[in-house]
Amino acid sequence: MTDILLSLHELTKAYPDVVANDSVSLEIKQGEIHALLGENGAGKSTLVKMIYGLVKPDLGEMHLNSETFAPADPRTARASGIGMVFQHFSLFDALTVAENIALGMETAPKMRQLSDQITQVSQAYGLPLSPDRIVGDLSAGEQQRVEIIRCLLQDPKLLIMDEPTSVLTPQEVSILFDTLNKLRSEGTSILYISHKLEEIRTLCDTATILRLGQVVGACIPAETSARDMAEMMVGAKLKTPQRTPSLQGEEVLKLTSLSLPPAAAFGMPLREISLTLHTGEVLGIGGVAGNGQDELLGALSGETCAQAGMITYKGRDIGHLGPNPRREIGLLTAPEERLGHAAAPDMSLIENAMLTGAQREKLERHGVLDWAAAQRFAERIIGAFDVRTPSAANAARSLSGGNLQKFVIGREVLQRPDVLVVNQPTWGVDAAAAAAIRQALLDLAANGAAVIVISQDLDELMEISDRFAALNEGRLSPLRPAAGLTVDEIGLMMGGAHGMEVAHV
Amino acid sequence: MIRLEKRPQPSRFYGVASPVFAVIATLIFGGALFAILGKDPIQAILTIFWEPLFGEFSFFYRPQLLIKGAPLVLIAIGLALGFKAGIWNIGAEGQYIMGALFGAGVGLAFYPMESWIIFPLMVLAGAFGGWVWAMIPGVLKVKFGTNEILVSLMLVYVAEQFLASMSLGLLKNPEGFGFPGSRNLQQYPSAHNADLVTGTGMHWGVVAALIAVIFAYVLLTRHRLGFAIRVTGEAPRAAKFGGVNPTRLVLFCLGLSGALAGLAGMFEVAGPAGQVTIDFNVGYGFTAIIVAFLGRLHPLGIVCAGGLMALTYIGGDIAQSQMGLPVAAIQVFQGMLLFFLLAFDLLTNYRVRIGQREAI
Question: Residue A210 maps to which CATH number?
Answer without folding.
Answer: 3.40.50.300
